[in-house]
Amino acid sequence: MTRAVMAALIIALLPASARAQAQQGKDRGPPTARTDSEKKNDAAIDQAYQAAVKGTGEKAKPVKVDPWQSLRPADASDNVKR
Q: pTM of the prediction?
């Protein structure tokens, strides 16, 4: 019986927390409209970013790195067992 009462109490309190969260957004006010100059500035920034990303893609070839280079012998003939 107590489990049923506790479950009903929890279910009854769930909408109250959702309502409290929804009311927080009402105090902020309406969103501000963006001006044409702000939109043009954003477009210019986006174009500069796309140009920078496009320029670094294919031209830079990956450099092969050998982390064991200092541990290997300089000549492959030194490695041959006789």
A: 0.34
